[in-house]
Task: inverse folding
């Protein structure tokens, strides 16, 4: 599709029947379902095992992740790695992805500043995530931040009041919403960053026991 050509309204029509994760990743690389691809460096799809028990879903790639073409490798990703380690969860055993697969940004001098994706952009991209969930079939799904939680649980969901509660959902046997690690980096001072980080670790500790295989399984 050439620049300026009108995009599709949803990625659903791009998803081949019976597609595997590698096929989804390949097809998503050329996704033009919304206009975000025009300013993005890469489509940032996912990383991790298709058999992972834990799926972590964020909002969208950061600037660093857009440039690298990999999710959760920037400052927020490094903080997530640290929090997972303190919660007793191996990042290598997880599947990490985002609701939106392209970075939305606005210029500020020479910097690229994160801009929240619109509801239309989220809706256009959501079929990719739905297909990922259907293929991975995680035992535990953790929504990182309001955008991920509301995309999967409805616009009335509030992380501020429902944070760290285990929720019944058809998406996974266990689902929990917490903050996005980038919000911790935006804390106003070191003391609040430490406090918010510890609270984030405590949230992740709630799901760690759920990832342990049963004695029979």
Result:
């Amino acid at each position: 599709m050439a620049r300026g050509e009108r995009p599709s309204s949803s990625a659903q029509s791009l998803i081949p029947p019976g597609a595997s994760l590698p096929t989804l990743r390949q097809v998503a690389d050329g996704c033009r379902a919304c206009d975000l691809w025009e300013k993005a460096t890469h489509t940032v799809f996912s990383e991790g095992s298709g058999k992972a028990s834990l799926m972590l879903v964020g909002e969208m790639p950061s600037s660093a992740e857009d440039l690298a073409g990999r999710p959760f490798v920037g400052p927020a990703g490094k903080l997530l790695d640290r929090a997972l380690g303190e919660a007793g969860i191996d990042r290598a055993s997880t599947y990490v992805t985002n609701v939106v697969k392209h970075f939305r940004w606005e210029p500020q001098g020479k910097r690229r500043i994160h801009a929240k994706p619109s509801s239309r952009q989220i809706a256009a991209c959501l079929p990719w995530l739905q297909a990922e969930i259907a293929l991975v079939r995680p035992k535990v799904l953790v929504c990182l931040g309001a955008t991920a939680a509301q995309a999967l649980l409805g616009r009335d969901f509030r992380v501020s009041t429902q944070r760290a509660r285990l929720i019944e959902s058809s998406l996974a046997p266990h689902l929990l919403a917490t903050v996005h690690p980038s919000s911790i980096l935006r804390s106003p001072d070191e003391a609040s960053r430490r406090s918010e980080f510890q609270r984030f670790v405590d949230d992740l500790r709630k799901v760690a026991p759920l990832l342990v295989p049963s004695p029979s399984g």
